[in-house]
Design goal:
Elements (H helix, E strand, L loop, with lengths): L1 H16 L5 E4 L10 E7 L3 E10 L5 E11 L5 E6 L2 E3 L10 E3 L4 E2 L6 E6 L7 E9 L2 E15 L3 H6 L2 E3 L10 E8 L6 E6 L5 E6 L4 E7 L6 E9 L2 E10 L3
Parallel strand pairs: 2-11
Antiparallel strand pairs: 1-3, 3-8, 3-9, 4-7, 4-10, 5-6, 5-9, 10-11, 12-13, 13-16, 14-15, 14-17, 17-18
Length: 248
């Protein structure tokens, strides 16, 4: 009986903790990006904030922490991350807080999930930052991703060569209206803005009638939540950024 009980305990442990990873990382379109390199374009002396979704594909709840490892960066760069409801200073590499994710659930930043913040210095170099997500009750249950920040030589001028340039929207979070400045190259057609929900579905599209100026957009027809907006010129995406709408 003792041998049978021991075998049952071992079997139960393998079911609970498993030999496979239950933590899955997703991009905004719900594509799996676990254990991959994600490329992000960033100009010199610029800032990039990027959100990734974390899913628990296991059979029980996971209690997850995050560890950041900087493989390479310039001395003037500053990198931060947010997890478990707290954003950590550049000097912190391991989250002090955990996020509990129920079996089958996926959390985003609004639910105390993850996003990475990177402020680049004036140097034009490639940076590599790795984030590891692990279950504090089962250290073998972990996954990660490496963000490769690719420098755009010439900063804004290089972005302009791609068709145009757009500022961050303001205010962000937005309540009823948002605004942004933009420039479309004279040799290009008119630009447009497309808003996507967290499922990657297009929910609103706005055509920019002029080549330069400040656009003001009514967002009262969009529900409160997290969105992404893409600036397109000649139907090619120039940049994609995050927007929060809060109808308080």
């Amino acid at each position: 009986m003792k041998k049978i009980t021991t075998l049952f305990v071992l079997l139960l442990s393998s079911i609970i903790y498993g030999y496979s990873q239950s933590i899955v990382l997703l991009d905004s379109n719900k594509n799996i990006i676990s254990n991959t390199i994600v490329d992000i374009n960033i100009a010199s002396s610029a800032s990039s904030t990027d959100e990734f979704l974390v899913k628990n594909a296991g059979l029980i709840s996971d209690t997850i922490k995050v560890v950041r490892t900087i493989y390479s960066k310039d001395a003037a760069d500053v990198t931060q991350f947010c997890w478990g409801g707290l954003c950590y200073l550049a000097t912190t590499s391991t989250s002090s807080l955990s996020a509990i994710i129920a079996s089958g659930d996926t959390i985003d930043f609004e639910q105390n999930g993850f996003h990475a913040i990177f402020n680049s210095g004036a140097a034009c170099v490639t940076r590599l930052v790795h984030y590891k997500f692990y279950n504090i009750h089962n250290f073998t249950d972990s996954t990660g991703l490496t963000i490769r920040y690719l420098c755009l030589p010439g900063g804004v001028d290089e972005i302009s060569k791609a068709g145009g340039v757009i500022s961050n929207v303001y205010p962000n979070p937005a309540n009823s209206f948002l605004a942004f400045k933009y420039d479309v190259n004279e040799s290009s057609e008119k630009g447009k803005i497309i808003f996507y929900n967290m499922l990657g579905e297009s929910v609103k599209e706005v055509t920019l009638n002029d080549k330069h100026g400040t656009a003001k957009i009514n967002v009262l027809d969009m529900d409160s939540g997290i969105y992404f907006y893409s600036f397109l010129v000649d139907d090619k995406i120039v940049s994609t950024k995050k927007l929060v709408i809060n109808h308080y």
